[in-house]
């Protein structure tokens, strides 16, 4: 998983990052709420581990802004406080789960996997199969199916679908998709993403199924989980 840890306790964040990295996760650290929101806009993460008590912007406010912006990123909130009021506040704001620090990395990983399953996609078997709703992809085999029917996709179409499936339920900006699918570190002055999405939509709906890709003007694209 690609994870974002938002924690102002530098030593605790570094220790948790090291433990999760040993479990084969790609971990980024943000020390404040604003820097976390900036990181989410610039990159795509599978889940966020969020401290409830942060400088500048509290964890609760971070979750509220995230949800108000339309992001469905799974959020596991951490706090040194175990009071019911703290948990209720975080969950009401939009967090998906709540742990009291310190929590073992193994438990955090298990909780995050549960949150990802709840979003509608999981890694199964040999870890190669990813699912979002009725769409299944195998990155290793470079194959994809919808409603158990194979999809005939070009390399770019498959790459685009794979990114949307990995982050189903969250919007990906055009800049994110250009970097991850096309490998550019700049946004070209063409509508290559929009054109590719149109082609992908045609294939996903060729058999009369609903369009699974949502568009948010000024934000980007999301695969509905």
UniProtKB/TrEMBL annotation:
Xref: PROSITE patterns: OMPR_PHOB (PS51755), RESPONSE_REGULATORY (PS50110)
Protein name: DNA-binding response OmpR family regulator
Any one GO molecular-function label of the UniProt entry: transcription cis-regulatory region binding
Chain segments annotated as transmembrane: none
Domain OmpR/PhoB-type positions: 127-225
Coiled-coil positions: none
SUPFAM superfamilies: C-terminal effector domain of the bipartite response regulators, CheY-like
PANTHER family referenced in this protein's UniProt entry, alphabetically: REGULATOR OF RPOS
């Amino acid at each position: 998983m690609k994870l974002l840890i938002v924690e102002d306790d530098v030593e605790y964040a570094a220790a948790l990052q090291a433990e999760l990295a040993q479990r084969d996760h790609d971990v980024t650290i943000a020390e404040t709420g604003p820097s976390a929101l900036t990181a989410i806009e610039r990159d795509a993460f599978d889940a966020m581990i969020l401290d409830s008590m942060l400088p500048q912007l509290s964890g609760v406010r971070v979750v509220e802004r995230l949800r108000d912006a339309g992001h469905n990123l799974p959020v596991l909130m951490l706090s040194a406080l175990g009071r019911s009021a703290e948990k209720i506040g975080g969950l009401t704001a939009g967090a998906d789960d709540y742990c009291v620090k310190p929590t073992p990395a193994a438990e955090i990983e298990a909780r995050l996997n549960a949150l990802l399953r709840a979003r509608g996609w999981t890694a199964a078997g040999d870890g190669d199969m990813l699912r979002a709703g009725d769409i299944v992809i195998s990155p290793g085999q470079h194959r994809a199916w919808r409603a158990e029917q194979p999809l005939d996709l070009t390399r770019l179409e498959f790459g685009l679908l794979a990114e949307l499936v990995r982050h189903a339920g969250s919007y990906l900006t055009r800049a994110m998709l250009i970097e991850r699918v096309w490998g550019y570190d700049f946004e070209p002055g063409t509508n290559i993403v929009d054109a590719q999405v149109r082609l992908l939509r045609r294939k996903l709906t060729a058999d009369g199924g609903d369009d699974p890709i949502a568009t948010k003007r000024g934000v980007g694209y999301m695969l509905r989980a």
